[in-house]
Amino acid sequence: MAGGWTRDGAVLDQIHDTVLDGVLNARAQMPVGEGASECVECGEDIPEARRRAMPGTTTCIHCQSGRDSRVVHSAINRRGSKDSQLR
Questions:
Q1: What is the DSSP annotation of 12-53?
Q2: What tens digit of pLDDT does each residue of 27-82 get?
Q3: CA gap 59, 65 in Å, rounded
Q4: With contact defined as beta carbons under 8 Å apart, do 46 and 26 qualify?
Q5: Which of 2, 56, 65, 69 has fewest C-beta within 10 Å?
């Protein structure tokens, strides 16, 4: 599919890059290393099942949900049109 002045396949390249950025961002935020038996934010015990499922975790599910809701995603303009840059 051609997009005017773009080469064929450029739209798919943009979609691929956006998905790849999201995956790399998610992987970068995953905990690594030794986990904790107690949450570093509230002090509650972290269930054994969570520690097995998420090695390296340092927060309970409730506190991690609060952290996840504060994640800000970048709004990189990959479209290249002036309309999308002005929004």
A1: HHHHHHHHHHHHHHHHHTS--SS--SB-TTT-PBPPHHHHHH
A2: 888 877 888 999 999 999 999 999 988 888 999 999 999 888 886 666 665 655 55
A3: 9
A4: no
A5: 69
